[in-house]
Amino acid sequence: MDEGFMLENAVAEKLYQEYAAPMPIIDYHCHLSPQEIYENKTYRNITEVWLYGDHYKWRAMRAFGIDERFITGDGSDEEKFHAFARTLPAAIGNPLYHWSHLELRRYFGIDAVLNEQTAASIWEQANAKLNGPAFGVRELITKSGVQVICTTDDPADSLEYHLKLKEDASFATKVLPSFRPDKALELNHPGFPAWLAQLGEACGKGIVSYGLLLDALESRVAFFHQAGCRVSDHALSEVPFAPATAEEAAEIFSRAAAGSRVSREDEQRYKTHLLLFLGKLYKAHGWAMQYHINAARNNNTVMFKQLGPDTGYDTMNDSLLAGPLGGLLDALEQQDALSKTILYSLNPRDNHVLGTLIGAFQGEGIPGKIQLGSGWWFNDTKEGMIRQLKALAELGLLGKFVGMLTDSRSFLSYTRHEYFRRILCNLIGTWVENGEYPEDYGQLGALVQDISYNNAKAYFGF
Question: CA 416, CA 102: separation in Å to the nearest integer?
């Protein structure tokens, strides 16, 4: 993992070292805590910063046979770290192996390979760094060269810490909210009525009708916009498209708000109407919209009841999306309500479907208005990134891609941008070495810097 790591030819090395590596980072989608950034949280030990909440590592540890006590249970932090150290050598070919060692090197200056034999020494070295000066989350962000962070925020959120950070001149990185109204869409979720009450509190009025829900969401979009939000996000396990009138959506809403479960058909109609309404709001505010599609969540009921969501029991979904997603985008387009949009699917078989679909809705003079999102979650791997990059290059314009994001809860995850940039430069370098593109560093350097940073800066307009 030296300077030439994952760079297989001289063109790739030059592109990475001279053009990609120096570029800042815009992390336009993540799950970091704005409160922890504002308070400049520090960590007692490497387990706290590395293993708490990291379901990527938890899945690997379970596959290795580690008892849950040393993953999410009452084992000590040191025991949990040693359990992960035993697991890591088996992770050959898994990005966890590369990510973990990149993080040890970039943040802690530790070049040793982590395994059971080296765990005790690395535990001591990393903890000494963490307990020393300038190792709060703000310093980690600054060290990583991050200019903008977009967190993931519910419409009912007060945005207290975003507003405090906005006024804090001592921290240069912008920490902005993203609008994630999933709970407004999931009307069959048992917590839907309770969430409506929370939204009502945030707006200062009860949400007793569908019209009042729409008014509340419109007011929260305006509030988020004032706080600096320029991007929304939706988690769609499958894409709905069943057009409905406002009256039909209102009747479906009334039943769900009263605690009744609605049919699948009615759920699809309600979601379609609400997504179209929200799309209009995003377009009116000049926001980018993100659809994260085809994640099947909480598959293991026993462990969901024990640990809750986001604990390593989600999988790829395989719902068909070409028809409903095309219908949804077309309905927005017909109403002049299709904003800049990034489409991600957790299922890599959808890369070419999305790669062709985005081409049907480009326009308005906006470079890359509709984007094929980066390799996400289970595709956040070497081969997953290459598949996404090649699909976009084959079917669209790789040069207008807005690049990488972390989608992470970890303040050490910015090495994923390095990982992505190395893979990008190696892919482009290979094409050049094969004679498929000229060795013109004016063009090549601009391409790499645009994908690494410039395109995102122009696209989102933070």
Answer: 9
Strand blocks (E) in 304-378: 315-316, 340-345, 370-372
Q: Which amino acid is at 20?
A: A
pLDDT (tens digit, 9 = 90+) per residue, 187-231? 999 999 999 999 999 999 999 999 999 999 999 999 999 999 999
Spell out the domains of the chain, with CATH numbers in brackets.
10-42+134-460 (3.20.20.140), 43-133 (1.10.2020.10)
Quote the pTM value: 0.97
Token pair for 417: 């941008």
pLDDT tens per residue across span 147-195: 999 999 999 999 999 999 999 999 999 999 999 999 999 999 999 999 9
Q: Coil, strand, or helix at residue 44?
A: coil
3-state secondary structure of 401: coil
**Burial track 262-299 (b if 16+ CB lie within 10 A, e otherwise):** beeebbbbbbbbbbbbbbbbbbebebbbbbbbbbbebe
For residue 372, the cross-strand partners are 343
Q: Cβ(294)–Cβ(318) under 8 Å?
A: yes
